[in-house]
Every structure is written in structure tokens, then in C-alpha cells.
Amino acid sequence: MDKNILIDTHCHLDFDVFDEDFDNIIERASARDIVKLITISTQISKFKKIKKIIEKYNHIYGSIGTHPMNAHNETEYREDDLIKIAKHKKIIAIGECGLDYYRDSSKKEIQKKVFQAHLEVSSVTNLPVIIHNRSSDIDMENILVSQMKKKAFSGVLHCYSSSKRLAEIGIELGLYISFSGIVTFKNADEVRDIVKIVPNNRILVETDAPYLSPVPNRGKRNEPENIWYTANELANIKNIEFEEISRITTENALRLFNI
């Protein structure tokens, strides 16, 4: 494997905020040796745009799924719909899906139902699931443990900023933990402490672009090239060389997503 190459395992290249300078964004990422990008679905109804991107660029892959904040708008989709789209050769994951009680907890039951459907699809397709969790640790733990007992699945707790306990549960279940630019934030000591307990063979790095731009670009639109700042912070936290964190996270991504 070449030195210092990276994979952005979670970005949202289909978002309109990237339309104006899309090709430049992709070129900047390639110039920084970011060899693969995974553009993550948040709405099944908008898959056409992801499909167009992944079919145009050889090194960009995609997922299919419904973000929990969109769950109430996509209840008409069934597991068969997800399975059908997931047959596309460039779709390598299910999601992002999960639970998010931070802004609106009134639709908890809908979120849980849609999330469980995604986990079932992950088990059927053998594609890893991209898991979103915010302010919902207890329900998340219960669903993950229960579902794993019924049918095994692989996946990643993405953009991790939840509790140490949930991280430990995820690791115990065989899941990966992915970190975003949050680890560079001044007030993110708890997240940095969790980085220390994640085994090297379970850690991933992502941008979640256009969100969560790392220091020194915090507050600006995020894009895949900024993953270097996050990877560098992970190397510092784990007290290893940048070359090593690049190798570790890239090998983990290739293994999880079977690229």
C-alpha cells in the first residue's frame, strides 16, 4: 500500500452545496492522495443524484438509506426497495440510518422501525450499515444488541460523539468506530478519550462533509480534502506516526466495505 493515502468513508457529495464547484472538490481530494470517497445516502428518494456521481467517478462509491431525521418522510419504502438498489455494483453500504433524538424525539417509534428495517437489509445483503446516533444511546444499544442476536451484521458507528459505553458495546459487537473533525475541536476531550480505547483494527476516519469541518477550517464548508487534519489528530491521540494512521484506517475501510 502506498504511504499516506486516505479514504473518506463518509461524505455527502450529493448535497446541493457542492454543485457549483464539484469537480474542483474531487480534484483537490485526489491531489491530497484521498484515493476513495464514499458518498452517503440520507434519502432513498434522492438516490438518482448519488447514482449519477458513482457512475461517473471510478473512485467514488455510495450507500443507500434513510437518515433518521428523514425517516418519517420515507415510510413508504420497503426493505425490498433497499435491497433492489443495493444490487448496484458501486453501492457498498446501507444507510446512513439510526436514531436521532436531539432535535425531535416525537417520532421515536418511526425512527426505530426504519432503523431496524435497515439492519435487516444489511444482514440480507451482507453490506455494512452506516449508523447515525445522537442523544439516543439507550435505544441504540438495545436495538444493536437485540438485532445482532437475531442476525449478524457488520457496520460502523459513524461520526462518533456518543458515550464511552456505547463505543465499548459497538466494539464488542464487532462494529467499527469512525471519527470526524469533531476530534479536533477544543471542547472534544471526551471524544478524544474514546479514540484511545478503540482498537486499531476498528477505527475509521471521515469528514461528514459538508458538515463538521476540522480545525483550522472550523465553521467553513467541509470537503473531503480536510480529512487530513482529522487523521493527523487521530495519529497524535494514539501517539503513532501519520503514515501509520493512514495505513490503519485505509486497510480498515477496504476490509469493512469490501472494496
Could you give a quick summary of the protein structure above?
The protein is an alpha/beta fold and about 260 residues long. It has helices at about 20-30, 45-55, 80-85, 110-125, 135-150, 165-170, 190-195, 225-240, 240-255, and strands at about 5-10, 35-40, 60-65, 90-100, 130-135, 155, 175-180, 205. The chain has a single domain, classed as Metal-dependent hydrolases (TIM Barrel), CATH 3.20.20.140.
- Which of globular, elongated, flat, extended, rod-shaped describes the shape? globular
Under CATH, the topology can be stated as TIM Barrel
Number of helices: 9
- For the record, the CATH architecture stands as Alpha-Beta Barrel
Structural class: alpha/beta
Sheet with most strands: strand arrangement: 1-2-3-4-5-6-7-8
User: What is the total domain count?
Assistant: 1
How much of the polypeptide forms β-strand, as a percent range?
A: 15-25%
Could you explain how this protein is built, in words?
The protein has nine helices and eight strands. It has helices at about 20-30, 45-55, 80-85, 110-125, 135-150, 165-170, 190-195, 225-240, 240-255; strands at about 5-10, 35-40, 60-65, 90-100, 130-135, 155, 175-180, 205. The protein is an alpha/beta fold and about 260 residues long. The longest helix is centred in the middle third of the chain and has 18 residues, at about 110-125. Helix content is about 40%, strand content about 15%. The model has no long low-confidence stretch (mean pLDDT about 95). An eight-stranded parallel sheet has the order 1-2-3-4-5-6-7-8. It has a single domain (about 5-255), classed as Alpha-Beta Barrel (TIM Barrel).
